[in-house]
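Hey, quick one: can you model this chain's 3D structure?
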Amino acid sequence: NKAIENGEIPIDSQLAKERIDSIEYKVIDDIVAKLTERWGDYSEMNHRIRFSSGLPYNRFFAVFVHEIFHALSGQIEAIYTAREKFEVEPDYVNNYSLKVGLGFNKPSNTAPELSPETLDMWWLNEALTDQAMIDLTKEKDPCAYGNERKLLKKLIDMGIPKDKFYAAYYENFNTAKNTEEEKVEHRLPNTRELFKFTNEKFGPGFLLKLDKFIASYEKEKKHSGSEMALKAWEEHGEDFPQFLNNFIAEKKLETK
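Sure thing. Here's the predicted structure for all 256 residues.
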């Protein structure tokens, strides 16, 4: 509550209370949790936080706060129905979120929930979530998303203000209707400002190109995409944006 009241967490206090009060909590079998390589997760589709039964006691608070931040982050809710499902069951709908924090979801028949297969910018979303947990709890030994947080720190050190990241992270879709008296200029102004600022700093589409670079390694599941991005940035220095441009151009040629 204090963090919200003093502005550390830029979210309306009433909205935060509603989000937290409506969370469903569930403990899942440790074997299942190990298969997913998670001690906890948050599902935006049913506003549920799950914990592994094998979660160490000394890690519970950090995992709990991390998942709470996911629940508090800005969201865009949508309804999706796969064509083949609609033809069989016309009344069926699938609720999901287009935006959770700074992750952007794409509907998928096989993996509708947030995962590296369906979520763009997942690495940035997790980095911001875990950093928010560390800032609030003063956790001295964080054990997750180390490379993702290092990449976030690199972006901040290179001139992208931390508050711009979090203004976009907590931003909910503006559903207000346009009227003659008041026109909605943009539904996600803070998110637009973050991408605009980053483009001006590093060139058009920088974050999206970085995301595609990271995703190319994550799909192979042989390397950490964030770790490879850090290594490439260290190697190429100020030429890293051009390196990404060349990488994307080569990928386009491969798909032709």
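One thing worth noting: The chain has a mean pLDDT of 83.
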